[in-house]
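forwarding from the other thread:

> can someone predict this with fe (ii) ion?

sure thing
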Amino acid sequence: MPGVAGAERLLGEVEEAEAALREAAERELDGEASFDAVIAADQKIEPRDAMPDAYRAGLIRQIAQHAHSEIIGMQPEGNWISRAPSLRRKAILLAKVQDEAGHGLYLYAAAETLGVSRQELDTALLTGKQKYSSIFNYPTLSWADMGAIGWLVDGAAIVNQVPLCRCSYGPYARAMIRVCKEESFHQRQGYQSLYVLAQGTPAQRAMAQDAVDRWWYPSLAMFGPPDADSTHSAQSMAWKVKRFSNDELRQRFVDMCVPQAEILGLTLPDPDLTWNEQRGHYDYTAPDFEELMRVVKGDGPCNRQRMAHRNRAHEEGAWVREAAAAYAEKNRKAVA
Ligand SMILES: [Fe+2]
Ligand SMILES: [Fe+2]
């Protein structure tokens, strides 16, 4: 399929990170290497290792927020499973939404290795104490949104997450490798679906363009506030959790999307998008960061709906948790 060269390159980076991870596991550090020595040697910190409290707390916050985003992110697309235009598209969308549940699971499990319980994480999401990505507070108004989300939202996610495959905390890095491989599939399916619509009838084309117009700026906002206002970045970079700044990743995403949009024959809704010869990058209009902050704080188009749905699903799942706990208890007694 044309236009996915950027995605291929990202997948290559994931594979390199995976090889580096395997190599690091084989290299022995002498006995009790300090936290700083492990970080300096580009080795991985593992759950048994001593680590600064702030490193642990920062990672719990970041991984939990990431896990919550995967789970809440199932809602906007889940909205279209029953209305997919063909059995094939329905099967693809089902598989994709199910992948997102799996991503949530890998990430909750990675957070748990830092000493936080699953129940604490659930409660933090359900009470709004911890946030999830602002992007999932926007509504999915047409079928073309499934394409635009796959291409742009999963695309932005993968640009954000590929560097995390090299993050200094082992369980997070390993989870991200699996997540990124699946995200790459998500992005391609979205792009392909949008490509078909863009080559279709004038009405289908218009629907695809409208979806791109609505998802472009919220996708740019996924990289977070501009570097100047980003609160946690410097420490996170020093600890090799974050490897690139918000603005660097945003630029990488814009540069990747422009040629892909050209192949789709769709327009990105930014009249100032131009190639800057000197910088070797596209100049672009920044997203509305005030809107981002409003949506993060709870005032987006769908915040209340998403939280109500999640709380209801949690309550309705109580019997499953009870049954699983009773079964585990029965097995424990049988062994004892
Ligand atoms: Fe995901
Ligand atoms: Fe995804």
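The mean pLDDT is 92. thats all i got for now
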